[in-house]
Amino acid sequence: MTTPAPPLVVKVGGSLFDRVAPLLGILREVGRPVLIVPGGGKFADLVRRLAVSDTSAHWMAIAGMEQFGWYIASHGIPAVASPVLPAEATVLLPYCALRKADPLPHSWNVTSDTIAAWVADELSTDLILLKSVDGIHHRRRLLSRVEDPSLTADEVDPAFIGFVFEHDIVVRVVNGRHDDRVRGVLRDEAVTGTLIDPRF
What is the pTM assigned to this prediction? Predict the structure, then answer.
């Protein structure tokens, strides 16, 4: 008898708004329990264009994540208001959870990437970032793994890599527009993307 795969936190980037239905289909097909953290996407992009304080922008952008979360939930996915280990594909509505804990700086250096890492740390799970890029690049070269905690990269927010190393979170950054890669990473297979494993 095989041991069930442990739960994961999966951040679905806002750029994958048009890919929600097929991604949820893959999650159901693979059957691994995942807690989805929604990105901010077009909702957070609107906040960026407004002249508001950092604190106001922080909470408005997280409210934007929550809107994307409700959109994901509208496809028949259960929604939860606090980080919990999932029994099936479940989506986190992050606003209430973060208002209660308020664990992160109020700055554009912290976006849904680092929020997803905080959720993974709270639950002691690995993290998958699904984005519309193949992984993290350095000098135009795709990195198969990140080993430098001080690395800055356009593909993730400025606080993300340092937070991941500080909290020993294993992360895989994968292109969510490739179904085979999404299936593979959910099954712990080697796929094109970037691995961050601070334990090595």
Answer: 0.95
CATH of the domain at 67: 3.40.1160.10
Query: How many residues are present in the chain?
Result: 200
* Predicted pLDDT of residue 1: 56
pLDDT tens digits, 42-77: 888 889 899 899 999 999 999 999 999 999 999 999
Does residue 23 fall inside a structural domain?
Answer: yes
Q: Residue 52: helix, strand or coil by DSSP?
A: coil
Domain that holds residue 14: 8-196
In a domain, 188, yes or no: yes
Alpha helices in 34-153 (DSSP H): 41-48, 54-73, 94-101, 112-123
Overall number of domains in the chain: 1
Q: Is residue 61 part of a domain?
A: yes
Amino acid 41: pLDDT: 85
Per-residue pLDDT tens over the stretch 150-170: 999 999 999 999 999 999 999
Residue with tokens 């209430």: 96
